[in-house]
Amino acid sequence: MQQTAERQTTPQDGASNEVLLSVRELRTYFPILGGVLRRKVGEVKAVDGVSFDIKRGETFGLVGESGCGKTTTGRTILRLQKATSGEIEFEGQNVLGLNPSQMKARRRDMQIIFQDPYSSLNPRMPVGDIIGEGLRVHGMRDRREREKTVQYFLSVVGLRKEYVRRYPHEFSGGQRQRIGVARALALRPKFIVCDEPVSALDVSVQSQVLNLLEDLQKEFGLTYLFIAHDLSVVEYLSDRVAVMYLGKMAELATGDDLYANPLHPYTKALLSAIPNPDPLVRSKRIVLQGDVPSPINPPSGCRFRTRCPIAYERCAAEEPAFREVRPAHFVACHRAEESTVLMAAKVASGEASTAMPVAAGPDA
Amino acid sequence: MRQGGSPISVSTDPREASAGRNASGNLLEVTDLKTYFKTMDGVVKAVDGIDMAIAPGKTLGVVGESGCGKSVTSLSIMRLVDLPGWIAGGQIKFDGKDLVKLSEEEMRHIRGNKISMIFQEPMTSLNPVFTVGNQVGEAIRVHRKVSKSEAEARVVDLFRMVGIPSPERRVKDYPHNMSGGMRQRVMIAMALALQPSLLIADEPTTALDVTIQAQILELIKDLRTKVNTAVLLITHDIGVVAEMADEVIVMYTGKVVEQGDVMSVLRNPKHPYTVGLLSSIPSLGVKNQRLNVIPGTVPSPLNLPKGCTFAPRCPHVMGICHEQEPPLKTLEGGVKAKCWLY
For residue A361, which residues of chain B lie inside 8 Å, CB to CB? Predict the structure, then answer.
């Protein structure tokens, strides 16, 4: 049913670098149940054939708007969500084929920092227990040793050792997120999925946590999958950035390259939509028409075509392959080579930057 | 855009508001506004003596982190602060009237009519059991003597103006049938239904994705020029302020710490808090440069430090900062900063 060429064109730059995590054709569908018998009447294709490699020690950024499948991708990699099909290899081991006890052992290496520091910490557990729970589950039975380890990690994330006995409500948002980071670190994992770790925080605190994540990566040799909707945060932290749209990869390149030469029309629009804090910088903005289509019934061919200013007949008929248009720069767009010129012309003529998206009409 | 013009038959250009404008030519003038909240642990001074002014057709941005009092300021202007909070002092001059002194009845004529508001959460600010058309129509029927069918026709026009596709059909939708961006458009349609002279937008795009945010910001800009509405834009996103506002106010612990035109404040910030805030944003294309950090966190409003409330986090702190609160001083170029450095 798919005609992607993702398999042949696996992102791989600097082949000498060791691949820590490799994801192939990952699909995660959520069933929609309906009728009296609660039969499956459809499915939400949250992640629909995504492939990428993450190298040891790198920060791999995953961006996209709500509903694009970026969080589901992260959760599926950790098997917090059941994959529908595909392969996930971590250090050469097929994660999806592991039995529960093998998976438990593997989880020491793969941790997650959650988005919301307010709801992801159990309000009835003292901080020491929250951070130490993983240690206990993974065999550190001695209470004293556990407490010592917890205190060490509290100091690593910049909190005071005395906080062990405090409860989450006694902390501010930024401090709570530090607790979440300490919890993820406690088992000394190799790989951490950072799922929107700063989006619930104020800017001044956000930068504290971002700097902390950078320091920890160096200190503990961590590999990050950094998921966020804020492109400037992702670009700041990541070595390579992947852009997702409606369950598929739209573009993948190094952070600098993606920012300097975006090739997918969606990435172009996304970048131009970010308001710049410098009032002198006034680039012409690409305003996309309409909303993201439903992942239950995605458009035929290219999924972005319904909002794409430069879509043509082929986009509806044929799904674009995720291909290497320039070295280490992958794009899923039929017109990737000419997109820059075409989009510039659209913006200049005002067609793609209309203030009022009224013209979308009833078929939008 | 194709429909052009205004869907409402009131004359647009010389605004009624201009007739009763404040002596200084400003539409809204807030002087020494104080809004306090009573809590179990004492009185929280959420807004503690702020001044601001907006001229017709202009946009004033208010920025600050959570808890700085920016939303309470907007709620105070709408007189929507309920117990345990109250307006403890100050004036809110709008159209020559002091809103603080108006009765609830008089205030109801102003809300939604002369001043309207867009809230942060398009998901929770609409009533889930009424159609969106009904809810926007209600605003019109309450304030103007129009028939039901007339109101409905106006709603369709409004929906078209804010860029909702196939408005005739969409008015019959319930909020859950719509996406976040569409719901925010409905909120904007409701806010603009009576062509207010002041629109308060409290984090209007925070809950939305960037491409949808871009649509909504373009829409507000467009309406501002078409209807000459003044906008009070409250946001934590400095990028949004840079793009939308003429003037900006930076708030910290219930007070204004810096104020001035957008160009000066954002390009050449004076107050150490503004400087820290601006440099802690990662900006696109600038990499491998450590983010600047404002150390520590915002102090608890119940236990504010003596003197300048920013002193414990300030890199330029001096002896006097711990002793005395600095005044909001007008500097060269008209920018005001509340700091002992100047």
Answer: 165-166
Q: Give residue for tokens 């997918």.
A: A264
Question: The sheet that has A85-90: what strands, in order across it?
Answer: A39-55, A19-34, A85-90, A93-94
**Amino acid letter for position B29:** E
- Touching B: A residues 185-244, CB under 8 Å: 202-208, 210-211, 214, 229, 231-233, 235-237
Alpha carbon distance A202, A180 (integer Å): 17
* Chain B residues touching residue A271 (CB < 8 angstroms): 284
Answer whether A202 sits within 8 Å of B211, measured CB to CB. Answer: no
Cross-chain residue pair B240–A275, CB shorter than 8 Å = yes
A364, amino acid identity? A
Tens-digit pLDDT profile for residues A287-305: 887 777 888 888 999 999 9
Element (H, E) at A157: none
- Amino acid, res. A236: Y
Our measurement of the distance from residue A126's CA atom to the centroid of its chain's CA atoms, rounded to an integer in Å, reads 30
Instruction: Please report the beta strands in chain B, taking only residues with DSSP state E, as ranges in sequence order.
Output: 28-39, 42-54, 59-63, 85-94, 97-98, 115-118, 198-202, 230-235, 247-252, 255-261, 328-330, 336-338
Q: What are the structural domains of chain A?
A: 2-17+58-79+98-242 (3.40.50.300), 257-355 (no CATH)
pTM value is 0.81
Residue of B nearest to A257 (CA): B285
Query: For residue range A148-183, what is the model confidence (pLDDT) as tens digits?
Result: 999 999 998 888 888 899 999 888 888 899 999 999
